[in-house]
Amino acid sequence: MKIDKGIDLSRFILEEEKRYPKASGTLSRILISIENATKIISSHIRKAGLVDVLGKVGRINVQGEEVQKLDELANNWLVEHLASTGDFFAVVSEEMEKAFFPDEGKDGRYVICLDPLDGSSNVDVNISVGTIFSIYKRISDDDASFLQEGKKQVAAGYVIYGSSTMLVYSTGNGVNGFTLDPGVGSFILSHPNIKIPEKGKIYAFNESNYKKWSDNVKKYVDTVKDRGYTLRYVASMIADVHRTLLKGGIFAYPADNVNKNGKIRLLYEANPLGFLVTQAGGIATNGKVSILDVKPESLHQRTPIFMGSRVDMEEFLAITKEG
Ligand code: P6P
């Protein structure tokens, strides 16, 4: 398919659908519903200081985190939009303890995992946040459809609400990025066929956890610091991974002696972003195996995560395997 900058997302999705003569158009419809819901989120985030959407709801979510008003709003807008398509048999969200089975989705052939607003605590201080989605084929009438390895995702992507609003996604044929033109209200292809640099000079680790890491991880970080790598860490995974995808380097949230299984969630953070980094030519791992090969056991399980440029990741794996 000839990819021209300037094509809008809807046209791109339909063009890409032509690759699959048997396609029913469902995946296209799903992606367009995600596009529409995230435009609403973007609009509210861009005026967050002016409307009553900042601050906390006064409730703790299943993650043990304080729910931000925009967390709840983003979740509601996304779930409503996706349920109304009738294409989703079930939805898992960071904001909901259990999977949601929409009445309209009884015949739905897909399930979706969502982080409606990753990094939401940063909204109040105007730091980039994002929506992450991960789509699988329905294989069961219960939660089992969500417990498939990340390599079985049929599509994954994110929308980053940063200096501009960008949607980046893949259906397994490479990664493409679209920038929202607020004047037109359309996502326009701005970053065709994204490939992560083979090697970078940036490491994105929360160094304040250094003393809690394993010796192997400390050894890797010491190595790249001695080499003169730059530390860039936003504490919003979407922003850190988006920069890594475009500039190269490594993003990591290792396990430590407090977060023994790491902090990042497998289903709606590590798997979708790991799928994109892998599709762009990088590597994503839990430190032992590809993150996309991990068989999930529960909806909100956490995992150590390391992802980024191929050469940097191969060096990381070599150093941490030395033991
Ligand atoms: P820490 C945000 O809450 C998040 O889930 C990710 O977006 C981010 O990478 C991480 O947590 C930041 O965690 O412990 O470094 O503040």
UniProtKB/TrEMBL annotation:
Class in the EC hierarchy, top level: hydrolase
A GO cellular-component term linked to this record: cytosol
Positions bound to Mg(2+) 1: E94, D115, L117
Residues that, per the record, bind Mg(2+) 2: D115, D118, E269
BP terms from Gene Ontology: fructose 1,6-bisphosphate metabolic process; fructose 6-phosphate metabolic process; fructose metabolic process; gluconeogenesis; sucrose biosynthetic process
EC number: 3.1.3.11
Domain Fructose-1-6-bisphosphatase class I N-terminal, chain residue ranges per copy: 9-192
Co-factor remark: Binds 2 magnesium ions per subunit.
Enzymatic reactions: beta-D-fructose 1,6-bisphosphate + H2O = beta-D-fructose 6-phosphate + phosphate
One GO MF term: magnesium ion binding
Pfam families listed in its UniProt record: FBPase, FBPase_C
Chain positions recorded as substrate binding sites: D118, G119, S120, S121, N206, Y233, K263
Highest taxon above the source species: Bacteria
Record keywords: Carbohydrate metabolism, Cytoplasm, Hydrolase, Magnesium, Metal-binding
Domain Fructose-1-6-bisphosphatase class 1 C-terminal: 196-319
Subcellular location as annotated: Cytoplasm
Co-factor requirement: Mg(2+)
Pathway: Carbohydrate biosynthesis; Calvin cycle
Family under the similarity heading: Belongs to the FBPase class 1 family.
Subunit structure: Homotetramer.
NCBIfam families for this protein: PRK09293.1-1, PRK09293.1-3
Descriptive protein name: Fructose-1,6-bisphosphatase class 1
Organism classification: Bacteria, Pseudomonadati, Thermodesulfobiota, Thermodesulfobiia, Thermodesulfobiales
